[in-house]
Amino acid sequence: MKAAITTQAGNPEVIEIKEVAQPEAKTGWVLIQVRAFGLNRSELFTRRGDSPGVEFPRIQGIECVGWVQEDPSGTYANGQQVAAIMGGMGRFFDGGYAEYTLVPLEIVFPFESQLPWHILGAIPEMFQTVSGSLHQALEIEAGEVLLIRGGTSSIGMLACQLAKTKDLTVVSTTRNPAKKQTLLDNGADHVLIDSGSISEELRSLYPAGVDKVLELIGTQTLKDSLKCIAPKGMVCMTGILGNEWTMKDFTPMGDIPSLGRLTVYMGESKNLSKELLQAFIDEVEKGSIQLNIDKVYPLDQVPIAHQYMEDNLAKGKIVVELK
Question: What sequence ranges are listed for the domain Enoyl reductase (ER) (predicted)?
């Protein structure tokens, strides 16, 4: 089979397209013919060598959609549509950057859809992350004001749409003024140009602060996001678009406002269910949710796609589709 193999830690050129042996099905695992997969920032960090415990060479990819090729357990029929997500996929065992992938049974989720594969490929990790961040971590409620820091990312764009369906007011940010209209068209009520410090401008709109903040940039803007919340408001750090894992200086009794709450969301496959996934796919199929897919690449252009992701050029999800 053909696979995009990360040969060693480094820049995107360390990913090479090679012919390798197709994995063989085994008890407790499902062999999937991959039809599409989304790219994720965590895969960028893994490629750089920043993910602990990962050994190279490695076929990366923490998600995929496709058909069941073989399931020794008989849980899924050959040809059944499925998604696979996380659980060590693409890190501790080979993942979705290939024509076939062998994954544990417990991270496989069946679905039925007539959507094109490139659209389906954008869904699993993006939906799991957004749904978990908004509902499980931030516990959003109708009538609240939500600030999305890093609004033009695929997670930010979908989070805005889902929040609007729950009757929240959304303030979204971008560093690029040219992307302001994109965020407004996506449903944001207000757009702030993010210089790294937006708390004063935010409080000119909402003097008391906002109820919830979805922090997708990460440590670079976390302190400023904490300055944006109202008493008993909450910040959830889900993303690290700023490419920095740790903070140089952080004083909990100072940087976290009194009564403020700070949490993180690091969802796993256990945070997803086949019912949740199918319901979301149905909404996309009906047109109730518009996925923001920026570019679709073939498998042999995964290195180019990684460079595009690293350069922060995308205005939505990057997807790889296999023909």
Answer: 10-320
Q: According to CATH, where is 3.40.50.720 located in the chain?
A: 126-264
Residues of 64-79 as b/e, b for ≥16 C-beta within 10 angstroms? bbbbbbbbeeeebeee
Percent over 90 (pLDDT), the chain: 85
As a whole number of angstroms, the distance between CA 22 and CA 29 comes to: 14
C-alpha span between 253 and 251 (Å, rounded): 6
- The beta strands (E) that lie in 94-228 are given as 100-104, 108-110, 145-149, 169-174, 190-193, 210-215
Classify 126-264 by CATH class.
alpha beta
Mean pLDDT of 202-214: 98
Q: In this model, does residue 245 exceed pLDDT 70?
A: no
What's the whole-number mean pLDDT along residues 165-189? 95
Decide the pairing of beta strands 190-193 and 169-174. Answer: parallel
Amino acid making up residue 17: I
The strands making up 261-264's β-sheet, listed across from edge to edge, are: 190-193, 169-174, 145-149, 210-215, 229-237, 261-264
CATH of domain 2-123+291-321: 3.90.180.10
Gap between the Cα atoms of 77 and 224, Å rounded: 50
Is the pLDDT reported for residue 315 higher than 80?
no
For the chain, give every residue range classified as CATH 3.90.180.10. 2-123+291-321
pTM for this one?
Answer: 0.85
Q: Is the pLDDT of residue 255 over 90?
A: no
First-last CA distance in the chain: 13
Residue 175, judged by CB atoms within 10 A of its CB (0-12, 13-18, 19+), counts as middle
d(CA 250, CA 238): 18
Number of Cβ within a 10 Å radius of residue 25: 18
DSSP 8-state class, residue 48 = H
